[in-house]
């Protein structure tokens, strides 16, 4: 898909077909897009956890009690490692959240390019999700997204509501 059209078309999907698992080759392409994302000083302080097994999905899905989320055939979890991220020397700024946001953006745009629905979620029950995962020392969960095909009855919005460019850009 043409890049600007891809950006225009991408939206959060909240209606998944639970009966269709994504093929491994397709999932690998999406995950590879995240792997290729830039990070500060190329530290790549992340881990991508793809949950596809029925048992682990049942455990992970308890972290976000929405009907549509329960239908997702896969859940992707982005985990950051603060001990591996770049820190700015003069004030200690940690690049980890920026790095993870870039990786997530690559992942969801790659999914859109493949016709796969996503929904960037940060309002989950952290403790429930963390207990379902084997987090290492210094790791934290940054965000999650379902991955799957949307149900055919769901229609994408025709027009995104966004501020006009003149409202957000300043030329000096």
**Level-1 CATH class name:** Alpha Beta
Alpha-beta classification: alpha+beta
Approximate shape:
globular
* Named CATH architecture: 3-Layer(aba) Sandwich
The total of beta strands comes to 3
How much helix, percentage-wise, in residues?
25-40%
Q: How are the strands ordered across the major sheet?
A: 1-2-3
CATH fold label:
NADH Oxidase
User: Radius of gyration, rounded?
Assistant: 17 Å
Please give the count of helices: 7
Main sheet specs: 3 strands, antiparallel
Overall mean pLDDT: 95
Tell me the fraction of residues in β-strands, as a range.
5-15%
What's the CATH H-level superfamily name? NADH Oxidase
Counted up, domains total: 1
Give the N-terminus to C-terminus distance in angstroms: 34 Å
- Uncertain segments of ≥5 residues (pLDDT<50)? none
Q: List the secondary-structure elements in sequence, H or E.
A: HHEHHEHHEH
Task: Please describe what this structure looks like.
- The mean pLDDT is 95.
- Strands 1-2-3 form a 3-stranded antiparallel sheet, sandwiched between helices.
- The protein is built from 7 helices and 3 strands, in the order ααβααβααβα.
- Helix content is 34%, strand content 13%.
- It has a single domain, classed as NADH Oxidase, CATH 3.40.109.10.
- With 172 residues, it is an alpha+beta fold.
- It has helices spanning 3-9, 24-35, 54-60, 67-70, 96-113, 126-132, 165-168; strands spanning 46-51, 74-81, 139-147.
- The two termini are 34 Å apart.
């Amino acid at each position: 898909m043409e890049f600007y059209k891809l950006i225009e078309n991408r939206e959060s999907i909240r209606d998944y077909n639970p009966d269709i698992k994504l093929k491994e080759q397709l999932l690998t392409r999406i995950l590879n897009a995240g792997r290729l994302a830039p990070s500060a000083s190329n530290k790549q302080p992340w881990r991508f956890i793809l949950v596809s097994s029925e048992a682990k999905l049942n455990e992970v899905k308890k972290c976000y009690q929405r009907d549509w989320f329960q239908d997702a055939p896969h859940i992707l979890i982005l985990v950051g490692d603060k001990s591996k991220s770049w820190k700015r020397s003069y004030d200690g700024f940690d690049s980890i959240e920026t790095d993870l946001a870039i990786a997530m953006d690559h992942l969801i745009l790659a999914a859109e390019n493949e016709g796969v629905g996503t929904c960037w979620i940060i309002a989950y029950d952290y403790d429930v999700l963390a207990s379902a995962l084997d987090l290492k020392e210094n790791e934290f969960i940054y965000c999650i997204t379902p991955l799957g095909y949307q149900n055919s009855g769901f229609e994408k919005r025709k027009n995104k509501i966004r501020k006009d460019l003149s409202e957000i850009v300043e030329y000096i």
